[in-house]
Structures are given as structure tokens and as C-alpha cells.
Design the sequence.
């Protein structure tokens, strides 16, 4: 797809990117409301934590199965129609959870919900990545990631006001999700298309073709969920109160929001693989030193803010790197691979961190994160060395 020249074409491009970012931010609000809501619903129904975990994992399984079909769906249905269909599926699935009389029905519902999310994120990121100006791609992806993080913070706030009982939070979640259709329908700017004659490759081939980019999603997904799950527990086991342990998570979230745009800007000026390497090395060093810093100190909070902010930018810079390397159907498939590996990270991160914490309580949590980042840094360094040769 080629953008029209001149100021009108530039404005059309910016309007289209703004519509995509607005839509996915609104969807992020609905999702961040629904995920804790569903866990609380199952807890209230007396479902064991083991089965809650198994049911939640179905969303990751759905992503792995759905991602390979995303380029074909964009080609057949068109980008806007596919996004609208995915939002409707997510909203109806959310209402279905409350209506389902049996827990067994939650498994196909969770699969449908996960498939819808996979399509929403893969397609919206393809949209944004395709239209982002080459010299501002990192900045645009940084704005996207920041907006999504802010949206994700609003969902739990809405849930805290509505509570988890009754139909109100489900209806609110479905309405918020459906509101994400409005910017898509109103977007009068350009939207990318995939043509039948576009060259394209399978989703999994991008692990080989651009491991620096797509493995960034896996590492970020694994570390994000590990931190969200175990960082407060790490603080509690080292003597913090519940309030101060929760403050660690606040520092992590704020760091993630604060660093997206600055590092996105930097990525527009340098080789993005070098920046990915720098982020992983800084993150690994931060994780390695955490056990040696008093958990109750301001320095610990500052390190959490810095390390999670830098590591969180792996997602932004990895996406921008994909947009730099691939186009058309290949970019759609690469974005699908990115979302798929992020979901794999969500599945493997908490068990790895939990195992580390069990082996060396509680410091093993930090050492596992250091190990994951170090392995990723090795992959990126190897790719850079091969390119240099």
C-alpha cells in the first residue's frame, strides 16, 4: 500500500493511525476490566484455583491456533470488518460467561474470547505499523503502547466502582468493548489492505526470519506476567506490608508507561536491534542486582521503575523493528507471530518464575528474569554479529 503524497495524504494517514490507537485503547479498557472479573466470578462459583488457571490458559491456546489465519482473514474480510467482527465476538463472549450455567461452557467461551483478542491486537498493530511514517515508527508505536497501558489501568478502576457481583460489570465491559468499534467505523483515512498477489509466509517462519523482534514479544510477555504475579509476593516474603508490596507493582506499571515514548523516539535514530540488546542487558543487570538491594528502600522502587520500563520497551521496539523489515501480507503474518509469541510468554512466565522462587525463596524470581533476558540478549548479539560478518 502506498500513501498519497502531500499534506492531505499525511493528515489522512495520521487520522487513520489515531483511529486504530483509539479503538485498541478502548478495547484495552474492556479487557482489563474483564480479566480480573472472570477470575472473581469463578472464585465465587467455588471453582478451584487449578481449574481457574487451566481455563485462563485457554485464551493463550486460542491465540496459538488463531494467529496463523490472521493474514488470510484480513485478505478475505478486510481490515475494518474483521476488527468489528472480533470486537463483537469478544463482547458477546463476555456476556456469555455470566449467562453460562455450567463451568464446562467456559472453555469454548474462553477460546472464542482469546481468538477475538488475538485478532484485535494482531490486526490493529498491523494497521498502525503499516501506516506509521518510516522516520517516526518508533514514536508511533510508543504512543500506541502508552495509550494501551493507560487503557489497561482504567479497567480495574471501573471494576472497583461497579463491583464484581451481578450483571452490571459484564454489561459495562461489553459496552466498553463495543465502543471500540466507533473509531473503526468512523475512520475515513487510509486502511491497509492485503492483496491476493502479495507475497506472504507462514507465521512461524518469522521466528527464523526476525528472531530479535518476535522473541522480544515472548520475553516481554513472560516477564510481564511473572512480575505482575510474583513481585508483590517477593515484597511480602521480605517483610513488606501488603500496601507497600502493592506499591512495587505501581512502580513497575509507571515505569512501563514512562519509557515507551522516549525509547520509541530513540529507536527512530539507531539500529533497533542494538536498542533491543541494550534494553535486555540493562534489564538483566537490574534483575541480577535486585536481591542485593533492601526491598524497603527508595533505591529498590527506583530500580523496579527503571528495569520494568526498559524491559517493557522490548514490545514497542520489537513491533517497530517488524514494521521496518516487513510489508503487506508478510507484516500481517509477522504481527500475528508477535502476538502469538507474546501469548506463549504469558503461559510460560509465571511457572518459570514460580519454580525459581521455590528453588531459592524469594530471590530465585529475580534470577529467573535475569536468565530470560540474558538468553534473549545472546540471541540478539548473535544476530548482530552475523550481520556484521
Sequence:
Amino acid at each position: 500500500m502506498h500513501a498519497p503524497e502531500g499534506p492531505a495524504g499525511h493528515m489522512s494517514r495520521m487520522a487513520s493511525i489515531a483511529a486504530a490507537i483509539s479503538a485498541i485503547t478502548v478495547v484495552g479498557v474492556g479487557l482489563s476490566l474483564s480479566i480480573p472479573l472472570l477470575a472473581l466470578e469463578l472464585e465465587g462459583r467455588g471453582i478451584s484455583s487449578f481449574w481457574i488457571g487451566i481455563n485462563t490458559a485457554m485464551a493463550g491456546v486460542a491465540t496459538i491456533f488463531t494467529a496463523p489465519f490472521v493474514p488470510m482473514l484480513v485478505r478475505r474480510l478486510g481490515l475494518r470488518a474483521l476488527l468489528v467482527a472480533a470486537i463483537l465476538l469478544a463482547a458477546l463472549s463476555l456476556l456469555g460467561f455470566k449467562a453460562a450455567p455450567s463451568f464446562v461452557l467456559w472453555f469454548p467461551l474462553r477460546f472464542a474470547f482469546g481468538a477475538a483478542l488475538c485478532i484485535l491486537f494482531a490486526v490493529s498493530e498491523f494497521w498502525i505499523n503499516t501506516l506509521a511514517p518510516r522516520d517516526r515508527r518508533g514514536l508511533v508505536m510508543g504512543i500506541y503502547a502508552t495509550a494501551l497501558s493507560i487503557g489497561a489501568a482504567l479497567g480495574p478502576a471501573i471494576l472497583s466502582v461497579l463491583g464484581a457481583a451481578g450483571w452490571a460489570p459484564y454489561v459495562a465491559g461489553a459496552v466498553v468493548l463495543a465502543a471500540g468499534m466507533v473509531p473503526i467505523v468512523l475512520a475515513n483515512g487510509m486502511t491497509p489492505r492485503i492483496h491476493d498477489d502479495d507475497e506472504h509466509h507462514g507465521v512461524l517462519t518469522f521466528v527464523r526470519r526476525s528472531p530479535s523482534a518476535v522473541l522480544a514479544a515472548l520475553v516481554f510477555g513472560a516477564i510481564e506476567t511473572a512480575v505482575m504475579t510474583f513481585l508483590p509476593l517477593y515484597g511480602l516474603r521480605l517483610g513488606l506490608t501488603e500496601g507497600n508490596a502493592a506499591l512495587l507493582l505501581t512502580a513497575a506499571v509507571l515505569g512501563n508507561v514512562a519509557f515507551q515514548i522516549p525509547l520509541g523516539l530513540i529507536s527512530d535514530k539507531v539500529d533497533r536491534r542494538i536498542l533491543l540488546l541494550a534494553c535486555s542487558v540493562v534489564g538483566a543487570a537490574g534483575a541480577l542486582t535486585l536481591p542485593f538491594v533492601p526491598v524497603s528502600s527508595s533505591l529498590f522502587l527506583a530500580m523496579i521503575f527503571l528495569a520494568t520500563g526498559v524491559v517493557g520497551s522490548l514490545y514497542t521496539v520489537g513491533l517497530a523493528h517488524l514494521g521496518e523489515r516487513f510489508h503487506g501480507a508478510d507484516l500481517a503474518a509477522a504481527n500475528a507471530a508477535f502476538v502469538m509469541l507474546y501469548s506463549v510468554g504469558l503461559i510460560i512466565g509465571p511457572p518459570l518464575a514460580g519454580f525459581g522462587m521455590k528453588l531459592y525463596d524469594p530471590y530465585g524470581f529475580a534470577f529467573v528474569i535475569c536468565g530470560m533476558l540474558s538468553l534473549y540478549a545472546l540471541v540478539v548479539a548473535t544476530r548482530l554479529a552475523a550481520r556484521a560478518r
Observations:
- The chain has two domains: 6-186, 205-388.
- The domain at 6-186 is CATH 1.20.1250.20 (Growth Hormone; Chain: A;).
- The chain has 15 helices and no strands.
- Residues 275 and 313 are 10 Å apart (CA to CA).
